[in-house]
Amino acid sequence: MKFAHLRLSGFKSFVEPTELLIKDGLTGIVGPNGCGKSNLVEALTWVMGETSARNLRGGAMDDVIFAGTTSRPPRNAAEVTLGLDNRERKAPASYNDSADLDITRRIRRDTGSDYRINGKVVRARDVQLLFADLATGAHSTAIVSQGRVGALINAKPKERRHLLEEAAGISGLHSRRHEAELR
Ligand code: ATP
Ligand code: MG
Asked: Is the pTM of this model over 0.90?
């Protein structure tokens, strides 16, 4: 399953609506310090259901909303949409009637986040499970942030197993079992 595009609005430094087309062959994003490269990657993990503000270099989740500059007022909401190319029907069965999947997360100051898949309101859990089943997501091994390689080397066996399960695409099953046991 391929990422097709990423749309941002009011997210961190991307105050104006911005669309990044993720075409075959895209291998890197370059730019001067502070231009927003890391913010783009964080937008990707955020829309996939990241729940830790610290992992997004913030103190609270609404820190992802454009905070304003000397010349621009702050925003009250941020929205990110990740478009997935599902033409090969690799998505879990419940989403497979659609060739394109648009996953949207929106946050407003003080009211928190809501999520949609192709315009239909879903739970954060549904988005997190979708990406866990696709063996990707906010905590997957596909996204390696600074310092992570060193942390992996020093990880305990249990933490390392967690990463292997994520890579194997079975962590969605584990969290469903955990949910079932709680019921
Ligand atoms: P480097 O090459 O140093 O890693 P980078 O391209 O990864 O830089 P980012 O860290 O993505 O840059 O962007 C940092 C910029 O984003 C800073 O200028 C910071 O002020 C801005 N920024 C972060 N959060 C917000 C926010 N909530 N509102 C407005 N601007 C923000
Ligand atoms: Mg950076």
From this structure: no
